[in-house]
């Protein structure tokens, strides 16, 4: 069984640029959630995708968008990057539309915006 | 809107001593509550959930709806318990969807 993987591991971008982060779900999982973790804080929910549809969103502006593909892998896109977007971005997968009691987290992508 | 508060950023105890990591929440409905743990150089993983009423690695947590708390306890701490602990809440009954996390408590168990 393959766990959740994320790419890239680290990324440095300039303010105003756009970035795409990628996530591969754990085998058999059809739901993906994205979280932003600022330094010294807990993860903050961005949005969740179930069977290629967004089915939940946290308090993040529209410049944060996502996609889920038929193989249940996912992308997080952030436009017009701001310095405050610097954070660890975590992807988590779960089976059954997120109705299970556990989310399985990836190792994260560290984004630095300069 | 829901909120999770972990009042202690850092907590140090000696090996064999009892440990309690505090978690308070605010939510108008009946939430599902969890403790997640992140050991050094490992990914975030579920430790336990209140619905299961289970003990994992000697840890237990009791949901107190009156005090809106979900404190994590272990009677005898071990050095391998040193890690970052996050309390989390899901507003969706019966699931772990859309988790709201606290800011975490770094537990250090001293030899």
Provide keyphrases for this structure.
heterodimer, A: 114 residues, mainly beta, 7-stranded mixed sheet, 4-stranded antiparallel sheet, B: 111 residues, 3-stranded antiparallel sheet, 48% strand, globular
Structure report:
The complex is a heterodimer of chains A (114) and B (111). Chain A is mainly beta and 114 residues long. In chain A, 0% of the residues lie in helices and 50% in strands. Chain A has no helices and eleven strands. Chain A has strands spanning 5-7, 10-13, 19-24, 31-37, 44-50, 53-57, 64-68, 74-78, 87-94, 104-105, 109-113. In chain A, strands 2, 4, 5, 6, 9, 10 and 11 form a seven-stranded mixed β-sheet that branches. A four-stranded antiparallel β-sheet of chain A has the order 1-3-8-7, with no helix packed on it. Chain B is built from no helices and eleven strands. In chain B, a hairpin with a 4-residue loop joins strand 7 (60-64) and strand 8 (69-74). The radius of gyration of chain B is 13 Å and the shape is globular. Chain B starts with a strand and ends with a strand. The mean pLDDT of chain B is 92. Chain A binds chain B through residues 4, 33, 35, 40-45, 48, 56, 58, 90, 94, 98-108, and chain B through 4, 6, 9, 32, 34, 43-46, 49, 51-52, 86, 88, 92, 94-104.
């Amino acid at each position: 069984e393959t766990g959740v993987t994320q790419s890239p591991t680290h990324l440095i971008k300039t303010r105003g640029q756009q970035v795409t982060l990628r996530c591969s779900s754990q085998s058999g999982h059809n739901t993906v959630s994205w979280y932003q973790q600022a330094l010294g804080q807990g993860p903050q929910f961005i949005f969740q995708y179930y069977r290629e549809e967004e089915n939940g969103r946290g308090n993040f502006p529209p410049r944060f968008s996502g996609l889920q593909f038929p193989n249940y892998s996912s992308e997080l896109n952030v436009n017009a990057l701001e310095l405050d977007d610097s954070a660890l971005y975590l992807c988590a997968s779960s089976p059954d539309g997120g109705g299970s009691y556990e989310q399985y987290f990836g190792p994260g992508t560290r984004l630095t915006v300069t | 809107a829901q909120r999770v508060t972990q009042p202690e950023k850092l907590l140090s105890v000696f090996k064999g001593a009892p440990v309690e990591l505090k978690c308070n929440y605010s939510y108008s409905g009946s939430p599902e509550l969890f403790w997640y743990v992140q050991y050094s150089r490992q990914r975030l993983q579920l430790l336990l959930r209140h619905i299961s009423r289970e003990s994992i690695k000697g840890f237990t947590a009791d949901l107190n709806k009156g005090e809106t708390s979900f404190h994590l306890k272990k009677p005898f701490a071990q050095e391998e318990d040193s890690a970052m602990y996050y309390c989390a809440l899901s507003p969706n009954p019966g699931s772990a969807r859309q988790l709201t996390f606290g800011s975490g408590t770094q537990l250090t168990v001293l030899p």
